[in-house]
# Entry
Amino acid sequence: MKYYSCVVACWALLAVVGRATPAKIEGLEQTQEIDDVNDRDPELPRTCELSTDINETSFQNPGYPSATSIPTDACRHKVYPVNDYICQIRLDLKDFILAQPDWDGVCATDFMQVSGAMTKIPQICGINSGQHLYLEVTPDFGSVTINVDTSAPGAKWSISVAQIECNSPYRAPAGCLQYFTSTHGTIKSFNYDATTFNSPNTPPTATTQLASQAYGVCIKPQSGFCSVAYTKTSGVSDDYSFSLSGDASVLPIGAIGSVGSTDCTTDYLMIPMGTITDTTYPATSADRYCGVNFPSKVESLVQPFVFYVVTDETETNHADPALDDGPNVGFSIGYRMQAC
Ligand SMILES: [Ca+2]
Ligand SMILES: [Ca+2]
# Structure
């Protein structure tokens, strides 16, 4: 009963206090204290302005599984360590639908932001159900705050929060915002599921790729496997399912992508010493991949198996609008470990 009455009270409080604090980023610096919830029931979902000090809890929007009917403004969830041996926190975005970014890929309406961890988390918005993130913390981290800030109705999220001990086999290597442990799988850019083309054969009409990203995606090494091969999950060279830079709406379908550090300077994937198995490309190896397409296969044997995602803060070329860097949809890349 304490929880439910608090939900109502906190919701009412947000409606009043939240609106009185229009600054978005500064939301985390509000003097308003987050309520400590010491209910030991992990099944009890936590919503705005509530905390947890037990493992495996969920942070959800008010009214979940329905979407919000009014903006929440800053909606914060504070996570305290369950013991003195916590080195990571894994966030699983079970359900995550926020407003889309603006034309520059900036999360200007809604965003999720995390503070208190060593890992710098990019601001995330749009559709990210099924994505996950690892936050690196020190065992004496104090607390981590997850802030989902919405200024439009229609947001919906359910984020499970798992604390990982320093000696846990589930701990990801340091520096990996995302960590994949199977021998094959799919790695998607954040908000990739908000594809703005009607089909992969029609050009995108808006940028869904998010700005200001810089993170590593790691793949767990396995005995008997010596390299990783990356391909577009669409499996089709002549489509618009991949675009990181360049105006995908004017380039012809099937145009080859760009590779290398000269051409890929704004938004790109970095695959260390990638070997290109695609004779339509002018290079046989490159570290950077961008443009409006991806080679039929890129293989890397550099361990640890990591690829990096980098985007700058804009899609606009102020000096020459004809060279605007979008609309771009990001990437959906399949990875498969290759036997030695
Ligand atoms: Ca771009
Ligand atoms: Ca950009």
Observations:
- The radius of gyration is 21 Å.
- The domain at 2-165 is CATH 2.60.120.290 (Jelly Rolls).
